[in-house]
Amino acid sequence: MALSSKYNPQEVEDKWYQQWLDKKYFHSEPNPDKEPYTIVIPPPNVTGVLHMGHMLNNTIQDVLTRKARMEGKEACWVPGTDHASIATEAKVVAMLKERGIKKSDISREEFLKYAWEWKEKYGGIILEQLKKLGASCDWDRTRFTMEDHMSASVIKVFVDLYNKGYIYRGYRMINWDPQGKTALADDEVIHKDVNSKLYYVKYKIEGEDKYVTIATTRPETILGDTAVCINPEDKRYTHLKGKKVIVPLVNRAVPVIEDEYVSMEFGTGCLKVTPAHDPNDYELGMKHKLETLDVMNDDGTMSEAAQFFVGEDRFVVRKKIAKELDKLGLLEKEEDYKNSVGFSERTDAVVEPRLSEQWFVSMEELTKPALENVLNDNVQLHPPKFKNMYRSWMENVRDWCISRQLWWGQRIPAYYLPNGEFVVAETAEKALEMAREKSGNAKLTAEDLRQEEDVLDTWFSSGLWPITVFNGILEPDNKDIQYYYPTNDLVTAPEILFFWVARMIINGYEYRQEKPFKNVYLTGIVRDKLGRKMSKSLGNSPDPLELIKEYGADGVRTGMLFSSPAGNDLPFDVKLCEQGRNFANKIWNAFRLVKGWEVKDTKPNEQNRTAIAWFAANFNQTLITVEDHFSKFRISDALKALYKLMWNDFCSWYLEMIKPEAKQIDQLTYEATITFFEDLMRVLHPFMPFLTEEIWHEIKERDEDDYLIVAAWPTADNSEARKQADLSLLGNGQVAIDIITNIRNVRNSRGIANKNTLELNVRTDSQDIFDQFGSIIQKLANVESITFTQDKIEGAASFMVNTPQGKPNECFVPLGEAVDSSQEKERLEKELEYNKGFLTSVNKKLSNERFVQNAPEKVVAMERKKQADAEAKIKAIEEQLAAL
């Protein structure tokens, strides 16, 4: 059947994906005869849909998985989703609101029923979308962080950490999300610089007609002030010591306290203290035994304790209080001020510091092995620049608030007795047994106990992901966990290095005494052409599925990887996808060209033998380079090397070298070319799975299980002897390519038609290059003859081509009457001017002693070579000009 003139991704992608599924090529089982290769997906939120960040992350994971599978490893890529407590609960609440149902009007059980209904309807969307990308996940192993055994594992770990003394319940200052109405951990707070105002408020000194001015960015918290603080060294406020001041509006007398914490430089050097609404004020309150007044409700409105503006939103109140203070003559002035404000990572609401009784994990001891094993590279971060950031966070870690005031999630397994005491147990039955023992009351019933209402932070469960996906908590010796753990590579974003990666490492050492993965590949952020992070709110993010529809999955995959170095942001432009699609079309057209040749039982000519040897050397050396890139997680560089190999070396040069005039080619050359095509499809398959599988099956009839996805990855010959032979051949080949390119340039600049044959005269010390590649030069440059000379050829176009040995070949192309001496002189003068300018810049660099002494030896040697080459070119041009 004739090949279509254009590659059509829509016709092949669903076909091959379904066949891979039917053949169970993605599925993995422990195999003692194979080395395991394991990746666990960073579980996207069950609320999520595919965005460009997912596209980049999952393409990289798929590239690594497909390559490992072809290398004969037992490749297992575990997919799944995260229950995402805050985000999912918000979606369910919104769904109920549309149905006219308020969360507060239904029971927990009813709400969870609706939540599971929502999850079943929408929860798998993103995984289905990943299939369109070509993700070769083991879908039989798909996990969800709230399925039964996953939740049971989380509860078991909670109880274990509690029994070890790592988990405790405490009344502390926490981060509160008024929109999600839940506590947040420190690292779930995103700090942003915002434009605010600094309000200078006058507090009356008790018993006097004098005032002290205090600057604040949050006048709404004045209603909760219980002290004013000065620095004991501040001479301006000596008169305040031992006195009280009157809090504006509420007219509450509060003490003036002294503490070195107060900065004498900020604002007026006098600080209002609101222990219930600022973590630093809370510490001062504890130290100085101050009263604590919580003047806000959990939704960010003012509480009864505020006395004023009860029930009104904090930000509305901020403006109202400022107006009220101004009316009373207590607002001295306002100033524009830029400060750092915390926002909820989940809802983007401004976080409110709040005193609350919550559950915490004590982190100091738990983090030690997780820090040590990243610093000593047992767990390697790629790129390693993130090690310092990781160390800084781990060395300054604070206790982790793990309770969330939600219903969707793993409910904390603490059970309260009637007297307020509690027990922690994996089941209600065990809790009752423990409660009876603790209280000494054997008559206690299950109805007497009340389970904690809060659920656990989502990161608490996802931190166990590499273990729980293989059921390694409930069954620590099962065959899956023993075989697949530790996993090999984790591909994720730097912004969850602490949210997720650090916690997985902590849990790995706590519950498996082993790292959870060997490598962490940290991708960059996908940004638009203006450098902005792609997001729905900005409307600057294309729909990934629409991109796949327009450019094909392979085009989008390669497009994203063309410019995505590890740890650096990806400046995405749709033109990258166009480049990817063009690459797919180039490969398809090259294949059509080869398949269109008629095979004859004849011997290959010398130029074809040379071409075959040259491309074989090119393929081998490129494969060595690609393997090196993969070992260093330079995935983008690996693709670029293969792109050059396919587009430049194979399509632009090799196929031209062997291309027959009458579409008839000898058997040996054709078979070698088909073998090259197969090998090229092998190395490109991880990047472009659909196109390569299609071509693989078009090349020839295949056995039932002869699919490219499980074909063997090529093995490079990295021996010194092969390296020397390859480099010699490639060096000579590059000289030939440079000569051909220069002759083509001569034609273009002189308007000489390609059909007109030319002669080539060469002054050289290495004729073996021409013995090897002479016939190829003649064919591709349409040169009738190559002769060697010691003399200059008058009236000829000339150019210099460097040899691998560093000695330049001087080439002459006689033009006879075809050359216009005045035009040639003008051209040579321009070339001379350029080379002199280039030489000046090189000389300037080499005359700099600091550069010569401090630069690496290779760099200096390269500059000296540039200098010698430029000098030789200048001399040759000057001689040509003299001959005109």
Would you kindly provide a written description of the structure presented here, covering whatever features stand out?
There is one protein chain. By secondary structure, this protein is of the alpha/beta class. Among the domains are: 155 residues, Isoleucyl-tRNA Synthetase, domain 2; 175 residues, Isoleucyl-tRNA Synthetase, Domain 1, CATH 1.10.730; 131 residues, no CATH class. Helix content is 45%, strand content 18%. The protein is built from 27 helices and 31 strands. Strands 7, 8, 9, 10, 11, 12 and 13 form a 7-stranded mixed sheet that branches. Strands 6-5-14-16 form a 4-stranded antiparallel sheet. Strand 1, helix 2 and strand 2 form a beta-alpha-beta unit. The model has no long low-confidence stretch (mean pLDDT 92).
From the helix content, strand content and strand pairing, which structural class follows?
Answer: alpha/beta
Name given to the CATH architecture of the domain at 544-718: Orthogonal Bundle
CATH fold call of the domain at 544-718: Isoleucyl-tRNA Synthetase, Domain 1
Q: Strand percentage, roughly? A: 15-25%
Specify the CATH homologous superfamily of the domain at 544-718. Answer: Isoleucyl-tRNA Synthetase, Domain 1
Q: Tell me, rounded to a whole number, the average pLDDT.
A: 92
**Which segments are poorly predicted (pLDDT under 50) over 5 or more consecutive residues?**
none
Instruction: Quickly name the level 1 CATH class of the domain at 544-718.
Output: Mainly Alpha
Number of DSSP-assigned strands: 31
